[in-house]
């Protein structure tokens, strides 16, 4: 209710305005005002828990970003220098990723029962039998520019859940997949027996529909189960729940750990110093292998040309039997390891990252070789006065580059960068860890020889 009081005078007049509300009217006005407040609901691009970012060399199709063959051949698409969100991850629930030499595999959960997709080089059928054209006269695809389904052969009665990917890893030209029911599938090049089957002289791998299937019991028996697979350049390793390691493939540098330097198509349990140990992690990007037991002790075998496994002056450069490493004894309890082409990494339970060997180790342009593990300072990985609890939680590497993920889900990368696979916006080598701009919390990173894949979850 409004009321006016008019005061008159000879020289002036003023109007006094007052507003009076009843209790009921006041509630009505407040209610009206509240109804005008816009309730903001942010739009989400997809309902999937994970998202994937890719970067690096694109001409092979390994990044899976292109959907047009003509555009994929254009020069400006050769490299992707910044982490770029993969459209395929918007439409599919991706649970795991692995990167080989010029190709990528994705583990997915879908309603149609498909569980494995791949993109990139397929010259050796490392992504299965992929064809285009009519069924009577198909043309084999050596390059797949976007993620395409890889059909895993099923036995009668096997369910979609049985075929979900439990672990997978890619080598130079082969792919190994472990499914939830314990079955191991291998595909691609088997020149050295890396697919766990007999080596056939002059076998042709291009256009091959052969996907080798190996039962879990035939590898580790009925009293154990397989939990992880790890591929080097041309060899394969499988880890069991009881901590045993099984290997096959190229052994010229001793990387199979079978006590010799021969290639082996038969998957074999290895011993040496890990025979009575419970191994929980194996790592290899090329031909040097690191293994970690449950107590945090480090073991190694394979190529040691740069002192990665033994820094003694008279040390052998190829080690064919797993041995306990003495050079990592002073690092404390190690909880993660990684092995590149000529260098190694370790992460202890205090969150300290150690590197050694030869290459860009993260200590600047003037330190390219060290025979003893040296730790990188925590501020290089995001720890500062405003975030003093930030620590590194996982490490990994490719043949020429390294990476570390901190507790905030940030990825820091360094090393060779010829193909832009560090995701820093350029092709220059990076001598110190540098944060990659990824719009998500990094869960896992797959380090290829010339490209990188990050599996993330949204920040919110």
UniProtKB/TrEMBL annotation:
<feature type="repeat" description="RCC1">
    <location>
        <begin position="114"/>
        <end position="181"/>
    </location>
</feature>
<dbReference type="Pfam" id="PF25390">
    <property type="entry name" value="WD40_RLD"/>
</dbReference>
<protein>
    <recommendedName>
        <fullName>RCC1-like domain-containing protein</fullName>
    </recommendedName>
</protein>
<dbReference type="InterPro" id="IPR053035">
    <property type="entry name" value="Mitochondrial_GEF_domain"/>
</dbReference>
<dbReference type="GO" id="GO:0005085">
    <property type="term" value="F:guanyl-nucleotide exchange factor activity"/>
</dbReference>
<feature type="repeat" description="RCC1">
    <location>
        <begin position="296"/>
        <end position="350"/>
    </location>
</feature>
<dbReference type="GO" id="GO:0019843">
    <property type="term" value="F:rRNA binding"/>
</dbReference>
<feature type="repeat" description="RCC1">
    <location>
        <begin position="351"/>
        <end position="408"/>
    </location>
</feature>
<feature type="repeat" description="RCC1">
    <location>
        <begin position="409"/>
        <end position="458"/>
    </location>
</feature>
<dbReference type="Pfam" id="PF00415">
    <property type="entry name" value="RCC1"/>
</dbReference>
<dbReference type="InterPro" id="IPR058923">
    <property type="entry name" value="RCC1-like_dom"/>
</dbReference>
<dbReference type="GO" id="GO:0070131">
    <property type="term" value="P:positive regulation of mitochondrial translation"/>
</dbReference>
<dbReference type="Pfam" id="PF13540">
    <property type="entry name" value="RCC1_2"/>
</dbReference>
<dbReference type="InterPro" id="IPR000408">
    <property type="entry name" value="Reg_chr_condens"/>
</dbReference>
<feature type="domain" description="RCC1-like">
    <location>
        <begin position="224"/>
        <end position="457"/>
    </location>
</feature>
<dbReference type="GO" id="GO:0005743">
    <property type="term" value="C:mitochondrial inner membrane"/>
</dbReference>
<dbReference type="InterPro" id="IPR009091">
    <property type="entry name" value="RCC1/BLIP-II"/>
</dbReference>
<feature type="repeat" description="RCC1">
    <location>
        <begin position="182"/>
        <end position="242"/>
    </location>
</feature>
<keyword id="KW-0677">Repeat</keyword>
<feature type="repeat" description="RCC1">
    <location>
        <begin position="50"/>
        <end position="110"/>
    </location>
</feature>
């Amino acid at each position: 209710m409004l009321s006016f009081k008019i005061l008159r005078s000879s020289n002036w007049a003023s109007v006094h305005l007052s507003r009076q509300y009843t209790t009921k009217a006041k509630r009505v006005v407040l209610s009206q005002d509240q109804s005008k407040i816009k309730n903001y609901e942010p739009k989400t691009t997809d309902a999937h828990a994970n998202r994937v970012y890719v970067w690096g060399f694109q001409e092979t199709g390994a990044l899976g970003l292109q959907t047009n063959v003509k555009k994929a051949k254009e020069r400006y698409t050769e490299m992707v220098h910044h982490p770029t969100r993969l459209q395929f991850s918007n439409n599919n629930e991706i649970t795991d990723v692995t990167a080989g030499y010029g190709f990528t595999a994705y583990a997915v959960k879908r309603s149609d029962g498909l569980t494995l997709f791949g993109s990139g080089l397929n010259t050796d059928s490392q992504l299965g039998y992929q064809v285009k054209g009519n069924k009577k006269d198909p043309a084999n695809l050596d390059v797949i520019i976007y993620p395409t389904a890889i059909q895993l052969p099923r036995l009668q009665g096997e369910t979609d859940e049985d075929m979900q990917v439990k672990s997978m890893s890619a080598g130079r030209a082969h792919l190994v997949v472990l499914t939830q029911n314990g079955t191991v599938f291998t595909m691609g090049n088997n020149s050295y027996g890396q697919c766990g089957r007999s080596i056939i002289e002059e076998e042709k791998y291009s256009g091959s529909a052969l996907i080798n299937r190996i039962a879990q019991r035939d590898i580790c028996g009925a009293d154990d189960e397989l939990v992880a697979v790890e591929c080097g350049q041309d060899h394969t390793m499988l880890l069991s729940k009881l901590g045993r390691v099984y290997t096959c493939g190229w052994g010229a540098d001793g990387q199979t750990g079978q006590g010799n330097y021969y290639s082996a198509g038969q998957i074999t349990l290895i011993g040496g110093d890990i025979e009575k140990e419970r191994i929980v992690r194996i790592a290899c990007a090329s031909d040097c292998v690191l293994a970690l037991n449950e107590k945090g002790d480090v073991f190694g075998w394979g190529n040691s040309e740069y002192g990665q496994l033994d820094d003694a002056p008279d040390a052998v450069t190829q080690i064919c039997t797993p041995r306990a490493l003495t050079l990592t004894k002073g690092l404390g309890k190690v909880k993660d390891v990684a092995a590149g082409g000529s260098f190694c990494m370790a992460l202890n339970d205090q969150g300290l990252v150690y590197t050694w060997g030869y290459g860009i180790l993260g200590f600047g342009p003037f330190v390219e070789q060290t025979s003893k593990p040296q730790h990188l300072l925590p501020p290089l990985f995001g720890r500062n006065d405003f975030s003093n609890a930030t620590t590194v939680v996982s490490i990994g590497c490719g043949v020429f580059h390294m990476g570390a993920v901190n507790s905030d889900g940030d990825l820091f990368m360094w090393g060779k960068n010829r193909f832009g696979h560090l995701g820093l916006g350029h092709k220059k080598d990076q001598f110190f860890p540098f944060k990659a701009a990824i719009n998500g919390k990094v869960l896992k990173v797959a380090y290829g020889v010339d490209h990188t894949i990050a599996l993330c979850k949204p920040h919110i």
